[in-house]
User: What shape does this take?
Amino acid sequence: MDRVLQLMLIAAAILFAIYIIAMVNRRKLQLKYTLTWLLVSVIFILISIFPKLVFTFSRILHIVEPVNALYFIIISFLLIIVFTLTRAVSNYSTKVKDLTQELGILKNYLENQESHK
Assistant: This one.
C-alpha cells in the first residue's frame, strides 16, 4: 500500500473516532450506539496501519482476493450497524405505542371527570 494512502486512511479513521467522541460529549449521540462506531474506527485504523491483516484474514477464510475480504469486513460491519439501529427503532416503536395508549386512557379519564361535574 502506498504510504501517502496509508497515512490518509489512518488520519481519516482517527478523525472519524474523534468526531464520534465529540458527538457523545455534545450529547448528539448516545453512548450505546457509539461502541459500534468506535469499533469500526479501530478496525479501520488497524487495517490502515497493518494492511497485511486483510491478506491474513482472506487466507484464513480461503477468500482468493484480499479485496473481497475487505468487502466482507465492510459489509459485516454495515449489517451489525443496521441490526443495531433496527433494534433501537423497534424498541422506540413499542415505547411510542405504550405512551399513546396511556395518553388515550388519561384523556378518556379526564373527559369522564369533566362530564361528571
